[in-house]
Amino acid sequence: MTRSAGDTSALVMDDKSFAAIATMAKDEAGLVLPEGKMTMVQSRLRKRLLATGQPDYESYCRFVTSPAGENERRYMISALTTNVSHFFRESHHFDILRDKVVPVLLQKARNGQRVRIWSAGCSSGQEPYSISMCLHSAAPELVSKDVLILGTDIDPAILEKAEAAVYSEQQVSGIPGEMRNSYMELDRGSGQYRVNSAIRKIVRFRELNLLRDWPMKGQFDVIFCRNVVIYFDAQTQASLWPRFRQRIIDNGWIFLGHSERISDSAMRLFEPNGMTAYRAAANKAP
Ligand SMILES: C[S@@+](CC[C@H](N)C(=O)[O-])C[C@H]1O[C@@H](n2cnc3c(N)ncnc32)[C@H](O)[C@@H]1O
User: Fold this and answer.
1) Per the domain annotation, does 85 fall within a domain?
2) How far apart are CA 13 and CA 250, in angstroms?
3) Cα 281 to averaged position of ligand 1 atoms, centre (Å)
4) Is residue 3 assigned to a domain?
5) Residue 3 has pLDDT above 90, yes or no
6) Ligand 1 atom at shortest distance from the alpha carbon of 78
């Protein structure tokens, strides 16, 4: 059977190409791709073969590792990241935010100090917008002060979705009813919902690879880094905790995903305080 030009459906990735792609994903983004993920990698990169006009995975691999393929490496990483996210995912963190953190932040803001929250690995924006909704509903006064939520991700394509702030009915179903009514606007034509301007106003998005430099100035009161380091190996995870500690104020908070933990080597820098919630131990320099 002959294959028509651009038909990549029957192409199979060879071991050598998979190994080269796995090495690049690890070096560029920290992503660990065990051999068992070969079929997933193959199907996620199929569209990149089409986009770049490469006839098979071997040629794609040669292209993406060459100097001419530098730009394509970003698209490749984008295709390999897992972007699943939900509004108010792991809702116990938003309970802590509302009950324990917001009162402290409000006091700080009333004293004229800035409040900064970082959603590291924010994907399509549900996490930073959930934080913004939580602040708005718990302390409307707080959001009129110097408050910003920074959402960062390695994947420029997913950040475009985050900026657009448009979600399906199924996606917004995770937002508690009252907040959904107050903060989401229905576009009757498309049946899609958009996060309203008051919630968007205190959220900013930037492209940032957690493995590289973090150019932001100052420290954060709270960091959400949830369901991101799970894709990294132990060594990469261990290298991040001291960096996060440097970026959190003393007694500030960091929230992780349900199957993530701070490595033992960094536990002197943090104190557990709830399910996958930690506070930055005061006066403990990394
Ligand atoms: C599964 S999503 C988690 C989204 C959100 N934090 C949540 O819990 O719903 C993981 C995100 O981490 C991002 N990511 C993966 N590697 C990264 C890296 N090296 N630097 C920054 N972001 C990364 C991916 O692009 C993806 O959007």
Assistant:
1) no
2) 49
3) 25
4) no
5) no
6) 25
